[in-house]
Amino acid sequence: MSIITIQSINKGNWEEAIQLSVKEEQKSFVASNLYSIAEVQFLENFYAKGIYLDNIMVGFAMYGIDPDDQNFWISRLMVDEVYQGKGIGMEAIKLIIDDIKSINRYEIPYIMIGYNQSNEYARNAYKKAGFVESEIAPWGEQLARYKL
Questions:
Q1: What is the pTM of this model?
Q2: Which of 35, 66, 80, 84 is 20 to 30 A away from residue 26, measured at CA?
């Protein structure tokens, strides 16, 4: 039985993370991992994580506390195209929620997520994980929240 884990992106695995890729039709839904790794260097209280299937990095996530609304946000979540459709993304969402709960020292009430309104896979996965859709963001994404 395979084990799914999340591990911090660091100098030993960042190059692995930037080799991951989504399907061509999904590329407009998520920023590149290289961009996300660079961005997280300048964000306080944000974390970049590799999603592992046993010892193989198969996905990437970035999450943390947004300084504007003081909620946790999952800013990035992707699973490499080769490993999609195997339940890895769903398990990764659960692991991210658990990690956020363990670092929630400020009693922050919500985890927020935004996704393209046409991304039915994301909509279904987040709904299944317990996220409830709220409003449409000014930048056009569907927002959803998870009550901690």
A1: 0.95
A2: 66
